[in-house]
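Good morning N.,

You mentioned wanting to compare the apo and holo forms, so I went ahead and generated the holo version with adenosine-5'-diphosphate. This is what I fed in:
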Amino acid sequence: MNIILLGPPGAGKGTQAKFLVDEHGLTQLSTGDMLRDAKESGTEMGKRVAEVMARGELVTDEIVIGLIREKLEAGGRGFIFDGFPRTLPQADALAELLQEEGQKVDHVIELRVDDEALVQRIAGRSTCANCGEVYNDTTKPIPADGKCAKCGGTEFKRRADDNEESLRKRLMEYYKQTSPLIGYYYVKGQHEVVDGLADIESVKAAVNAKLT
Ligand code: ADP
Ligand code: ADP
Ligand code: ZN
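and this is what came out, ligand included:
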């Protein structure tokens, strides 16, 4: 089963992807995480994308398609695409890559939220440096003992691009470049919507309901 989670920055894609990994044994492919890893390990590509990401712009289709191609060619079944595809050329490329592996996109789930909610979600976001578990100052606080509920890690990170100015840019990029994918998958008969404004557990239940 291959699932695309679609939605603006802060919609809850990463949070729900982690549940799908735990419960369905799927592999999460987050291009945002891959790009941040490249940046942190200081590769040539990582250096090139750092500034673009900090500004909240999209990196080139060529780079992200290359990252996804590598993962798909390495084999395995059952992926959750989190933050990819984000443009129409990326969507076409994904269909082709999956076809080459004898696979297809099975579900495209849009986490629908309103823009007002995103500022608070993004401003309050942090992640466990060890396992990547996603927290929120208001809606999913780090446990009082300061340890990650999942792995016990004690170091948490905030993203350089999680500020209001970059969020505005990312939201504009979402509306200009990514939201057309809703129509694209609708026409293919694959588009499904879940209310992303509900609490985390309710969103999880609604996503699961789409997969049965
Ligand atoms: P969010 O969680 O806010 O939706 P991501 O972690 O998915 O953000 O992405 C962070 C940044 O990485 C984006 O603003 C963009 O610069 C870059 N990026 C991630 N995925 C893609 C993609 N599929 N195409 C182009 N740029 C991407
Ligand atoms: P995305 O990957 O779409 O950018 P995240 O999963 O990183 O989104 O979530 C963004 C922030 O919102 C995080 O701080 C997360 O803990 C919080 N969050 C995610 N889903 C919900 C929800 N349903 N209700 C409240 N807060 C949420
Ligand atoms: Zn952790």
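The radius of gyration is 16 Å.

Happy to go through it together on a call whenever suits you.

Best,
F.
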